[in-house]
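User: Continuing from earlier, I have the next pair ready.

Assistant: Great, send them over.

User: Here they are, in order.

Assistant: Folding the first of the pair now:
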Amino acid sequence: MHEEKETGRVEGFSDHVFAIAMTLLVIEIKIPSHEQVAAEGLAQALAALWPSYLAFLTSFFTILVIWVHHHWIFGLISRIDHPSLYMNGLLLLFVAFVPFPTALIAEYSLHTDAKVAANLYTGTFLAISLAFDILWRYISKRLLSSNLTGTKREEAAQITKQYRFGPPLYFATFGLSFVSEKLSLTLCLLMALFFALGGWPIRR
């Protein structure tokens, strides 16, 4: 089987998983009931859904950043092997799981057990960061061609440098969720922004 075609199939399959996960997020934003609208009015009922909007925005933006980085990484390689397929599958496993903790944190962010929801939510992103780090470490050592152009070598170095911050920062966010769920969720959004701004490939 042709290596470039195999890489394309992996990217195509991964893109579908990312797209489905992102689409499922919006399903968890529930339409206000007729009883609630009758009691509060539609505008107020919609405003009361702000935890769902925030959870949706954070998760959607984070998955978007993950997808961009995934595309960036696979743009640097022209071949794939069995171990990397399973590592990529591990990453997709956690990405596909994101809609569940997103729905949970949206539903229970104002509940007395909000910390438990925040633990699962931030823990999921910690797992994603670890899976991504494992995938990149393997790819950078085994699958990057020695014939990479200077620009692509710089891009690989840029990725390696940035990914050093991923697991420690998400571990800190996970730890923070035991203290303050609101701060941990805010940090999740800020970290997605950090990786988005730091994820611009070098071009000359």
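And the other member of the pair:
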Amino acid sequence: MTLQLHVITCSTRPGRIGPYVAKWFCEAAVQHGKFDVVPVDLAQFNLPIYNEPEHPVRQQYQHDHTRDWAASVCAADAYVFVTPEYNFGPPPSLLNALNYVYREWNYKPAGIVSYGGVSGGLRAAQILKQTLTTLKIMPIVEAVTIQHVATLIDENKRFTPIDSHLRAATAMLDELYKWTQALKTLR
């Protein structure tokens, strides 16, 4: 049984570094070998601030951008959110995307790769977990926290992880695989 993992780049701002971190994590997840890894970039969906007239639980989407996003979310068995920290929280682009759909998220696990300055995005990750549980997503404890991320991006725009990032990625993927198998039985 092939399990699909969506690695979601959550920042959409110009000049962002999330795609470099997400590219590294996708490569690590492919190397892990337990998932069919799909990179997903919120910037490519270009979701406006939530504009559906019906509550998302009804799944009566009026806009193509919502239907496209819903199909992407639904296709995944698990998620990894690659997120920066904006003012001690997740970026608005991520919160907006989470709010667009509901049932498509339900009973799936999620890991978090957070990045930032000295905190490594930990505050954003903690706040994100509260939102995820409301969507019936199971945020796992294992995570990748990247401090001082800008110092790990080279002149070729490539993120170079340190050993602790590699170990954390493996631990998170191992645990995510267990939860993905278990939660699939609920869907």
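Worth noting for the second one:
The mean pLDDT is 97. The domain at 3-184 is CATH 3.40.50.360 (Rossmann fold).
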